[in-house]
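From the pipeline queue, job 12 of 40. The input is one protein chain; the requested action is below.

Action: predict structure.
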Amino acid sequence: MRSISTRFARIPRAAAIAILAALALLIIYGFFCQYEALSETVVNKPRNNNTDIALYYQIVERMRQGEGYYQATGTSMRFYGYTTRPFLTWRLPTEATLLATLPSLGLARALLGLLALAVLAAWVARLREVKKTALWFAASILIPGTALILSFGKDAIVFHELWSALLIALSLALRQPGRWLPSVLVGTLALLFREMALPYLGIMLLLAWREGQRREALAWLAGLAVGAAYIAWHAATVTPLMDPAAESKGWLAFGGWSFALATAQWNILTITLPRWVVPVIVPLALVGLAGWKGETGTRAALTLGILMAAFMVVGHPTNIYWGLMYAPLLPLGWLFCQPALRDLWDAAWPRKKKIVSSGLGGL
């Protein structure tokens, strides 16, 4: 049976030891980080106690009654005590417009579920390129499914981040050299749902250019231009509607690794397993993604790494749902964790090879 080789297979011994030491320290440090378990902050709270969810539902309901998006959003934000400045406090209208246009929210839930299943199918097909065994096939369904199953929650449809994250994951799974157009279109759609998809499009653009895929790079640039124009139009529309004195406290919080771990909990395993599991399996996922060889692994690792690094700087405890932006990518790291650790261990402490002599000078 062919084993999976990772990018750690041939790194210098000192580098392997440094990575393993950093991994151990990060896990230990995580045990001392203070953050609330996701099940305590979101999952077990009824809708009327979760202001963000209630806000999003009210916006959609008002739009169904005939109000425009910006009128419905402004009224709802003021009702729930949200500040209306800066313009980024107003979500892009894509998701609310979709939910208000569909005949029922039940159909919206079905659509989100189908999108999650499409993501799973795309990744199962893509991961078959890595290894073709029954066990790997089962793992490629079950492990990514630990995050995707959250898409079937009753209130999942109102999270802009989840729609965007699923589209990012689908875009990444679809992307292949020479067959990048579906990936670009889906990735651009992710940006239209949530501006937090900007880093993903930027990564795809830069790596395509670096790999000599000039046409693909230009396509990603066009996607960024479409997204930037949409966000600029949104900002111009919101600006006259903002309350002059209602300034947001901003998102700079420097929550560090504690907030990064908090955002990483959007997975059925981290919700149901004991809390001490989170500081262990999140760093292991990062190592697994970092070790995944190939263009897809590089893109997945950079997307996840940049988003998590950003959340160490921006985001308050109430913004824990931002972690949905990378939730579908995190379990992919667990698939590659064991071979990555094996290669790191072998590089750090290589086994001595036995030299067999023929006794005839090799003749």
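Job complete. The chain is about 60% helix and 0% strand.
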